[in-house]
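Just scan this pair:

***
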Amino acid sequence: MCGIVGLLSYGDVGRVDRTVLDRMRDAMAHRGPDGGDGWVSEDRRIGLGHRRLSIVDLNVAATQPMRNEDGAVVITFNGEIYNHAKLRPELVACGHKFRTDHSDTEVLVHGYEEWGLDGLLERIEGDYAFGIWDERKGLLSLARDRIGVKPLYFARIKGCFAFASEMKALVEHPDFVREIDPSAMYHYLSFLTTPAPLTMMRGIYKLPAGCSMTIDRFGKATISRYWDAVPGCGIERSETANLSDAALEEFYVNGIRDRLRASVEKRMMSDVPMGVFLSGGVDSSTNVALMSEFSSRPVETFTIGFSDYKHLNEYEQANQIARQFGTNHHEIGISKKDMINYLPQMLHSQDEPIADWVCIPLYFVSKLAHDNGMKVVQVGEGSDEQFCGYSGYMTYLKMYHKYWAPFRKYLPQPAQRLAAGTANLLSGMHPKLPVYADVIDRAARSREHFWSGAMVFPDLMKSQLVDAAAIAAANDDHADAAGLLDPEYLKLDSFNIVRSFMDPLDAKFSNLDPLTRMIHSELRLRLPELLLMRVDKIGMSESLEARVPFLDHKLVEFSMDIPEEWKTKGGEPKYLLKKAVEGLIPDNIIYRKKMGFGAPMSDWMRSDFGRAVRASVFSSGLMRRGFLKPAYIEKLFDWHFTGRTDTSLYLWAIFNLTAWYDLWIDRKAVDTSQLSDAVA
């Protein structure tokens, strides 16, 4: 994994300044500590930069930006192409001459020449973000991988189109004006993150997963989706026709196991040491088991726990797996003090607020791996989303089948609206009630019952938190993203985000089961923009590339064709995946209750740390903008401090937002003095 950046000056405005390009590139030095280089065209209309983390083909010949034989095609590339070795002979047979020994970047260069952008994207398998300049066509092409493992941001800055792996590179441009995007902030308060293509920084956008984009020499941009997580791509109907239940289960189990094994094997591609994050759960333990099959030396495993909250640790299970597979095992425990000292770096590394406190342990386990010589790790993200591994998913499904569907089917519309209105009135009686009232309101208004597995403020709570008039007055028309941004995203209704990808799904596929719809939503929003974004930003802050075997697109396509009834057979979460890994890892690991990867934030927030967070929030420059209502925020703190209910998720989301504003908009260094004083 690396860091990429590019500038295209279009029309008659300006030229690329190499000094500016280099400064933007080096704002991401952590993404590529092994070197940095750049290229600017002779007419200075286009410039590309690259920070290198050497993983495949360590030779200097593989340095980027990389050009083809005559220099007409130039690329800057972040990521890995796992099938590059299979594609290279085909390109050689077509007459392309390679200068490197086994660089996957050079396969992209010649693959683009031979097949064009669409043909290239159809053939490659991997995790990637790249920019390719075609001098003959005067065309800049960008692409983000199918699942969204790698990020890619872009902006228009005074007649210049700019792109980069991280937002912090774009704000380094001297003509960029920093300002919060109120619409993005509104949706962040719903989803813990901003939905693509919006970002928290006005004027900066992120390319959605599975999308490509072209920009001509005049600045005209076109965006298209080349892949989506939908049914009908993984299993031919003839393969399952007339199978008995026993035979069908065997087909699903074998299909999952075979694709997962192939995915792990592909992701062993590396010329440098690699390891795996081991929690002791099903997903990470499976990664260890399969990596051990393809490794000639002991797998390096890394586990994190909490020194102050030992009941949250999974050391025992992790050590069981480490012993069984003979790994070189490493552990670390962190405290509240460690968390507080890390916060300034976290806010800088995230780019925009990612209000998931998993970022904290994720950083320390990433640092542990880096300090032990790792450049690559395999992680378990994506398994729970595909195979229904979260208890919250099971709750949503039970609610849908027992209450939602009957409510919608048997209760007349006037009665539905009356029920919703009554629930809204009663919601103020207890801090937990708005969540349930919001679900009833969705049903009465024919809205999706499931929006995301990471909802923060439901609509009823958000109406008490934000001043909608102040946000609407500050909204921008986003003219610089004309044609690329759905205008509905700018309205203060987060259901528009969900509707933007669920309506096309419904138009193409009728009668999908609720779980398949939920998974599609997760693969469009929560996975790429929250879970994978946190893995990328936090891991790369320690120059560590994370690979995600459970999100190989062939496995995703296969799993999207498996119905809900099989993924949750007998009420068992992850039923088929658990069957698929029986015999690979111990049954006591497979069938124990899921703990999850988290942090004791609720307890931390009830300590002096929480009061320091309160002081930080209310002193933030964002509070003076009038977007948020102080009285309601005060109520959330009071509820948590008095133990009336746990509001730590809401408070953490608000703290991340206000602290981000202070750092990135007001450019004030994060003051940890109050927070540090809160260490018990």
